[in-house]
Amino acid sequence: MACTSCSTSDGGAPKGCKNNGTCGTDSCNKLTVFDWLANMSPSNGEAIFDCVEVRFKNGRKEFFRNSEKLTLSIGDIVATVASPGHDIGIVTLTGELVKIQMKKKGVNPESNEVPKIYRKASQKDIDIWSVARDREEPMKVRARELAIQHKLEMKISDIEFQGDGSKATFYYTANDRVDFRLLIKDFAKEFSTRVEMKQVGFRQEAARLGGIGSCGRELCCSTWLTDFRSVNTSAARYQQLSLNPQKLAGQCGKLKCCLNYELDTYMDALKDFPDYDTKLVTEKGDAICQKQDIFKGLMWFAYTNNFANWHVLKIDQVKEIIAENKQKNKVSSLEDFAIEVVSEPEKDFNNAMGQESLTRFDQPKRKKKPNRKRKPNAEAAIVATPNKPQAASNQNKPAGGNQNKGNNPNKGNKPNNNNKPNKPNNSNKPNNSNNTNENKPAEPRKPIIITKNENKK
């Protein structure tokens, strides 16, 4: 669904259109609605619905009436009514789906208060719009500095310029009411434009800025979620979730909207369960519920005098005990009703397709202690191995045998050892200045050979 400028390159890296929100196909923007009626013409000669949906910066969308009967399609840049002047936006939806979207957002399609579209944007309008959009980021940095100088407890999250560059809207978040009258005067003096301050909630701020959630996907509020319903901690309790604020809170600092997605399913499953605070009276003592498995229909109970041992009961068995207790009868014990829960064998997914473990770098490296102990012996073996034949031949030689080594008649029959790497030879021994063999290496492993010869002597 992406345009050609947003596609990936030959190496697989994304190109990025860098159009500052003016993508031609409008398929890579926030809260995009797929027009599945685009190829269908109205039946019985009905006129096309004269309202269109226009998108501005981020996910801000508004509806405008095409009173001039312009031929508009998705991706056209138009000049719309603004106060004061005009604004520049991109058409994101046309036709009958606009009427459905207006009813969804509570806008009357037949109302005369729907603003109008002036014209299609000219090249001059687009140039002024682009210059204004480029000023937003440096202005946001300076605006935050001014807010800090005034010691205001507020956060300026975003700035949006009007299409004609005559007005800038500053979006900010704050916990309490903020007196920013002096701040507006500094903004007008610093940026030489008309300033409008608009406070948004923390959820709306996250929707405007966007980001990646803990699930690994884009935030729901910035992609498809349009209505922000209240989320309570009771939703986490019903779903047996730990009340950890770090895990339950989203990037906005509030409870995650996705806690409400499966809440209805859990509520339906809990209708057949007894109350969590129900006590079971037995001859061994009272028992209190410790845990529930909603979808398997199991409850764990433990005696008040022994919380270490838990007993698993089915819902029907719990209801049977409760019915006996209502008749003021005590059951003998929970062991008579308890069942054994067979734990499922854990599935081994290691090396399923021949790949290595993903946690191989998490484990600390083991120290190779045996190799450190054997290291001196290994070096001695390396030194002694190539010199054993020579040492054996030198045992029967006189003390001055090294001086007459060049006249040895059997030495010419030995093969050339130039291709053997790092092999010590007798040509580098001390006091062998008369050696005439030039094919041997100059000084291989001189300190090791000197030490060995001294031991031999």
Account of the 3D structure:
The chain is 27% helix and 16% strand. It is elongated. The model is unreliable at 377-421, 423-438 and 449-457 (pLDDT under 50). Among the domains are: 51-121, no CATH class; 127-200, GMP Synthetase, Chain A, domain 3 (2-Layer Sandwich), CATH 3.30.300; 221-271, no CATH class; 274-327. The protein has a five-stranded antiparallel β-sheet. Strands 9-10-11-12 form a four-stranded antiparallel β-sheet, covered by helices on one side. The protein is of the alpha+beta class and 457 residues long. It has helices spanning 96-104, 123-134, 136-149, 181-191, 202-209, 220-223, 233-238, 245-248, 263-269, 315-326, 369-394, 446-456; strands at residues 51-55, 61-65, 77-81, 86-93, 117-120, 155-161, 167-173, 194-199, 279-282, 285-293, 298-303, 306-314. Residues 365-375 have a biased composition (Basic residues).
What structural class should be given to the helix and strand makeup? alpha+beta
Distance between the termini: 85 Å
Give me the strand/helix succession. EEEEHEHHEEHEHHHHHEEEEHHH
Estimated helix fraction: 25-40%
| Widest sheet: strand ordering | 2-1-4-3-5
CATH class (first level) name of the domain at 127-200: Alpha Beta
